[in-house]
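ESCALATION

Customer reports they have been waiting on this structure for their group meeting. Please prioritize. Original submission:
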Amino acid sequence: MSDPLEQTAKLTSVPSETEAAIVIAALEENGIRAESDEYTSGLRAGPWNWVDIMVPAQELAKAQEILAQVQEENDHINWSQVDVGQPEDDVEEADKSDEEE
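Update from on-call: job pushed to the front of the queue and completed.
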């Protein structure tokens, strides 16, 4: 938060920056300022691959309600079944093997 004297509270931790961005965007759309601990001085803060989402302490209860709504709205997505394509390294290797044939 921009005010160094403002009390903050940890809303949740999520396993990626992408999930943190989704939650933060939903909170901000509902008037709650939020930020993540994604980086501190260019270095990753917190446990590897987990991102804490912080909100003003006085808005924690409202933020928890919004988080529950976001989770409910996205609960139907089975990310293990979503085809996101090949990683870039695999695509480059596949292209090279196609050229060799």
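Sent to customer with the following note: Residues 60-74 form the longest helix (15 residues).
Escalation resolved.
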